[in-house]
Design goal:
Blueprint: H1 11-17, H2 22-33, H3 37-55, H4 60-66, H5 72-83, H6 87-96
Length: 105
């Protein structure tokens, strides 16, 4: 999933690859990760989107498409629900943070 997070996910296909029923895959996946396969994929997408936005070389719409969202509106809604701010505002805040120097020994 980490290598193909930008692609549409099919729980049935993953279950077939794992030789499990979809219900069994869902149960095992949730027991291991604490979330459903779809929620896990969304988390991967949003983490990568946040990293790209913080780098500052793309717009929110460009990042949304790059991480697999078809709809920038859906991306904005999900991003805000996870990070508490719209992508543009969050990215500006992340870029304005001073980087911390390594601790001296």
């Amino acid at each position: 999933m980490r290598e193909h997070y930008t692609e549409p996910i099919s729980v049935d296909m993953i279950a077939s690859e794992a030789r499990m029923s979809p219900a069994s895959l869902h149960r095992h996946f949730k027991a291991t990760t604490g979330m459903s396969p779809l929620k896990y994929q969304k988390q991967l997408r949003l983490q990568e989107a946040r990293r790209r936005l913080a780098a500052g070389d793309s717009t929110a719409a460009q990042v949304a498409h790059a991480v697999g969202y078809v709809s920038p509106t859906q991306f904005n809604r999900e991003y805000r629900s996870v990070y508490g701010r719209p992508p543009g505002q969050d990215a500006a805040r992340l870029r304005s943070r001073p980087t911390q120097a390594p601790a001296r020994r």
